[in-house]
Write a structure and sequence with these properties.
Length: 227
């Protein structure tokens, strides 16, 4: 299978000499649904930022579809990120004054897609996540679970190679969280590669592969020995 993201002996040290990651190696392959799970302060969010090319490692190599991200110019890296990675965050980050369809269409703003086609594509993806009846609703008129599904649709609208979801159920009640997890499973079955960052072991146990992080290091990977 195609290697989507690879970390090779990655370390990250912040100002003041504070280590966040130490000697982390892992590979996410096409078609996987992976949980990166660990307690607060374990380094999982730092790993997400490195995998998403939002930051660069202090040591080691991060490869996105075979490209060493540290060797790529910032402008090219931004284009790679825009086309290849979809992000979902715990806080949703939706425009309060925008409808669902316009929030999702915003994900195509830098892809050179004409305005009308952006809205058409956004409507198609919202229907895919079960919100075809909410196109004109603003976030204030939606439940937390619906807002997160809008955020997932925005992450999907450009057809990324991989979706990185940071605590996607963290702000949701149990029932809404279960709906979002079911959606992620369905999207994965349809071919989307997904990595979920979570502190919740119950969420992680619902995903087929679990990478456990503690004190800046990978301490377990359910896929080891499975292939």
């Amino acid at each position: 299978m195609t290697e989507m993201i690879t970390a090779e002996r990655v370390g990250k040290v912040y100002r003041g000499g504070v280590p966040a990651l130490t000697d982390v190696s892992l590979t996410v392959r096409a078609g996987e649904l992976v949980a990166i799970v660990g307690p607060s302060g374990s380094g999982k969010s730092t790993l997400l930022h490195l995998m998403g090319t939002l930051d660069k490692p202090t040591s080691g190599v991060i490869r996105l579809l075979g490209h060493d991200v540290a060797a790529v110019r910032d402008r090219t890296l931004a284009a790679m990120r825009a086309h290849w990675i979809g992000f979902v965050f715990q806080q949703f980050f939706l425009g309060a004054t925008l409808s669902a369809v316009d929030n999702v269409a915003a994900g195509l703003m830098y892809a050179g897609v004409p305005h009308r086609r952006r809205r058409e594509r956004a409507a198609e993806v919202l229907d895919r996540v079960g919100l075809g009846h909410r196109l004109d609703h603003r976030p204030a008129r939606m439940s937390g679970g619906e807002r997160q599904r809008v955020a997932i649709a925005r992450a999907l609208v450009a057809g990324p190679a991989i979706v990185l979801a940071d605590e996607p159920t963290g702000n949701l009640d149990t029932a809404s969280g279960a709906v979002v997890l079911d959606l992620l499973h369905r999207l994965n079955r349809e071919g989307t590669t997904i990595v979920v960052i979570t502190h919740d072991t119950e969420v992680a146990e619902r995903l087929p592969r679990r990478i456990r992080v503690r004190d800046g290091a990978v301490v377990g990977d359910s896929a080891v020995g499975a292939r």
